[in-house]
Amino acid sequence: QVQLVESGGGLVQAGGSLRLSCAASERTFSPYAMGWFRQIPGKPRTFVAAIKWRSGNTYYADSMRGRFTISRDDALNMIYLQMTSLKSEDTAVYFCGAKHFDYSNSGAVYYPRDYTDWGQGTRVTVSS
Fold first, then answer.
1. Dihedral class, residue 45 (left if φ above 0, else alpha if ψ from -120 to 50, else beta)
2. Cα→Cα distances 123→9, 84, 90, 105, Å
3. How many degrees, rounded to 5, is the angle at CA 11 between CA 9 and CA 15?
C-alpha cells in the first residue's frame, strides 16, 4: 500500500551513534503509527520504537529507552531512529513499518503482526 525504504545503517563501534531514516512513498502520509523493529538471525522480529501519528506520542522497548529516539519530518515524509550509546547487542537488521489502523482498538504499537507495510531493512553492526 505504501513503499518504505530504510537507510543509514552501517558499522559503528560500541558507544557510538547512528541515525536511521525511513522514507515513505505517499505524498499524504498519515498512518495510525510508524514503528521501528529489528531482527537478528534465528530470532523473530522485535519491537524497538514507535510513534503514533496523530498524537506524536512515542514508545520504546525497555532496552532502548533513553538511548534511542524516534521522530518524524512531515515535510519530507520521513521517520528517523536516532541511536546512541550503541551496544554489540544492538546489531541487527532494522525495519520500519506502518500500522495503518488500530482495528482492535487496543492502542498497541508493539506487535509486528499489526504492521502491514515494511521496508527492506537496513543493517546495523556494532563492534566491541
1. beta
2. 5, 16, 10, 33
3. 105
Please count the other Cβ atoms lying within 10 Å of the Cβ belonging to residue 62: 6
**In this structure, are residues 96 and 71 in contact, taking their beta carbons and an 8 Å threshold?**
no
With b for 16 or more beta-carbon neighbours within 10 A and e for fewer, the 75-106 pattern comes to eebbbbbebeebeeebbbbbbbbbbbeeeeee
- Report how far residue 8's alpha carbon sits from residue 122's, in angstroms, rounded to the nearest whole number: 7
> pLDDT tens digits, residue range 34-57?
999 999 989 999 999 999 999 999
Question: Quick check: 34 and 50 in contact, CB under 8 A?
Answer: yes
